Amino acid sequence: MPAREDIEPRPSRKSNIKTALVCGAGLFVIVIVLVVYVNIISRETESSLNLFMEEVADVESANARAIFEGEFNILHGASAFITQENIGNEAALLERLREVVDSGSFSRVGVVDLEGHGVAYDQSLGNLTSRDYIDQDFVRKSKGGADYVSAPYEDELTGVQSLAFSVPVYDIKHEGGDPIGVLVGVTSAESFANIIDVSLFAGRGSVSIIDSNGNVLLRSAAAEVDGVDVFSAGYDKAGLPDEAKESLAKGESGSATVIRPNGTTLFTIYRPIGINDWFIDVVVPSDYLEAQNHTVLVASMVMALFVVGVVSLLMYLILRVRHRSEGALARAALTDRLTGIDNELAFMRKSAVRPEYYEGGCSLVLFNLVGFSLFNTIYGFDAGSACLRNIAHLLKSDLRRHELVAHLTGDRFAMLVETSDARRADARLVELMNRIEAATRADDSQYRIVSQCCVYRLERADFERDINLILQDMAVPLKRAQSHAGSRIVRYDECDVAAATRARQIESIMSTALSEKEFLAFFQPQYDISGDVPVLCGAEALARWNSPILGLVTPDEFIPVFERNGSISQIDHYILEHACVRLRQWLDDGLRCVPLSVNLSRRNLFSADLIEQIEHVVDKHRVPHELIKLELAEGIVAENERQLISTAEKLRARGVKIVMDDFGTGYSSFPALKDIPFDTIKLDRSFFGESIADKRGRATLMSVIALLEQLGFKILAEGVETAREVFQLKEWGCQTIQGYVFGRPVEGTVFEQECLRPAQNDLISAQLDGRSF
Ligand code: C2E
Ligand code: CA
Ligand code: CA
Question: How far is the C-alpha of 598 from the C-alpha of 457, rounded, in Å?
Answer without folding.
Answer: 42
